[in-house]
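All the exercises in this workshop are built on plain-text protein records. Instead of coordinates, the fold is spelled out as a row of discrete tokens. Once this layout is familiar, the rest of the handout is easier to follow. The record below serves as our worked example for the rest of this section.
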Amino acid sequence: MNEKYWPLMATIAVFIALFLTGGFLFKNFLSTLVLGHILADNAFIIIAAIGATFVILSGGIDLSVGSMIGFVGVVMANLDLAGWHPLASIAILLIFGILFGALQGFIIDFCDIQPFIMTLAGLFLLRGSSFMVSLDSVPIRHPFVAEVARVHVPLPGGGFLAASAIVMLISLLAAILLAHYTRFGSNVYAIGGDRKSAELMGVPIRKTTVMIYAVGGFYGALAGVIYALYTSSGYPLAGTGSELSAIAAVVLGGTLLTGGVGMVAGTLFGGMILGLISTLIIFDGSLNSAWIIISSGLLLFIFIVMHRFLVGSFNLRGRA
């Protein structure tokens, strides 16, 4: 097997090990019902992480994702109060996410600004704008939300895929096709592997950078939509810290923070690992929520060290 698949295989192995551990410790844990709930509960984080995967593969970072989730949700809720159909507001907000991300990408390249700084500014801008729209949680009462909540796909064993999980899986498939079977995806890997070499090979750096952050903005806005529909509300503080969870899911999924190496499919398992850790601690009942953060941090540290070892041993960057 090509060494570039090893981080993905390691991620899948960790997920399976954690899932089997849960089955050993807790009755009825090994079920499609638990699996379905993990997918549904973490769908918005995984969607945001899918967009972040493209950014990180290019060697960048996007800290505005969490604020995008909060902004989209609170605007969507207030548009509902104004009589808008959710589908209309969703379309407008997805377009906004694309344009906002594209603007960030353009400024990063044109002004030669570090992505960390630019997207940090985007974080503050979107979060502040959320508070300008509303300071309180706003319910979404349109019947469409209840209809979406009833959508599900049955799974063997009594489980089911909720609407949020269905949208997430469709988004994942689209991202896999975009990253691994298009010229744009090849350009993303080229920029992340070696920006100077990519430029010499004729990769359109500015155009690709703008598109990368536009994709990240789209997935961030979609995560906000899913979160708003899942909670039937919009809240200006929603998504706080979600940008870090999204980055963690990407890293746990086998993508290097330095860019150029990783697979979009791994992000799914990275996000599910985070959700699985939370589920295991909830099933235990004797541990408080602090252990979710501690366990996730320890696992993230182990994966970063493992990635560095793999890069040093197999020279993944040169083979990607």
